[in-house]
Amino acid sequence: MTELTVEQRQEVIIEAALDYMTHQDWYWCEDDDDPEVVADLLRLYAVDPNLPPTPCSGSILFDTGVTLALTWEAERRAEYERSLPVWICDCGTRYKLEQWALSNESFYTVTDDGLFDELAGTLKGKRGIGSVPPDPKYAANNGGCITCRKAFKATIDRQADPQTSLLFDLL
Ligand SMILES: [Zn+2]
Question: Could you tell me the residue ranges of all domains in the chain?
Answer without folding.
Answer: 6-82, 86-170
